[in-house]
Amino acid sequence: MSREIIILLMSGSLVFFLVLGYPIAFVMGGVAMIFGLTFLGPQAMHVFVLNTNTTLMDFILIAIPLFTFMGIMIEKSGIAIRLYDALHVILGQLRGGLLIATIIACAILATATGVIGVSVAIMGVLALPAMIKYDYDLPIATGSICAGGALGVLIPPSILLIVYDDAAGGVHLRNLFMGAIGPGLLLVLLYLIYIIIRCNINPKLGPALPKSEVDISVSRKLYLLFTSVIPVVVIIMAVLGSIIVGFALPTEAAGLGAFASVLLAAAYRKLTFQNLKEAVFNTMTISCMIYMVMFGASFFSGVYVRLGGVEVVYDLIMGLSVPNWGVLLTMFTIVFFMGMFLDWLGTIMIAVPIFTPIVARLGYDPVWFAMMMIIVMQSGFLTPPFAYSIFYLKGVAPPEVRTTHIYRGVIPFIMLQIIAVVLCWLFPDIILWLPNMLYNQ
Q: What is the pLDDT of residue 441?
């Protein structure tokens, strides 16, 4: 049997079982086991043991449970409520002020959590009822929460970036962290511009709050801002700052952040045994899920490479007779549609090990390509039918919010994400300026 037929059958089997709804970790591991034993023989078990051991021995991956714990503990500390309340009164008198407050709050929470579900669920509970109370347009309100919450997969410290670094290999995590800051700020800026323009053209979409609702003293506003924003900023600057200056590895910085989150919860009198138990349990659940997928994916990619999968895909893509930019566009399009049907972890573990060697042969910067992939991948959180942001928000939204409201609301933000991809393609320094300035002098 030819190499091409084997790879086609292996890829087809993967897609078939994923479409049937089986867990991705067991699908990738099972397909790898069947094709590995059939075509590689006992060597397949050696691949499994070697790749599993490599994953377990990767010191950087310890940052996954540590950053997850940090995000959950910060959420348990009640900082999100304080943050939104502060932005609510500071920005409430602007047209679309609650939408602006939501995007800014999501961006700040993204730096503290790195997990998308936390930001979307929190803003769904805090911001959405307030926007309904003041007659905000439901589509733009729900779209802002979904898009703002999705920033958590891009703005560091992001769990997605850590997993991407492991899947790609050879891309330093600190470069990914620094490269993600530019696109993250770009998306925040695009979202805010869109909201401000639309709400000023049509004030009914986001009416300003009555002055009586937000009429508090400047000193009170400063107090709310100081007690909500400054603690998170200090923690994140300590975490990212230690990585930037080389004082600590990402895993060590994650440990620092986890410890600081416990101190923050204690300062706000939220460090109870129940909160600590829930944080540990949720961290264990999320981390085990990620590790299981990584084990299955590492086995799949190992067998795939040994069967010649990278060469087959490379020959197929290069055989399209398109320029290099066309090859990239094909990859990004594939990832975009994968995001509609797979979660982010599955998309990374399937696409990145296959595409990264091809991109290296084409001579593109690995950090730039990684960020472009992640921006495209971010749209998967907003694109039906498999859209995490929509599911999370619908789960906590009031009864009057229908799924059609959310679907209509996310469409403009998907367009804004595509604009961000185009801008980062045309102006790669949006991604590369900061890592080049810090590490390539």
A: 47
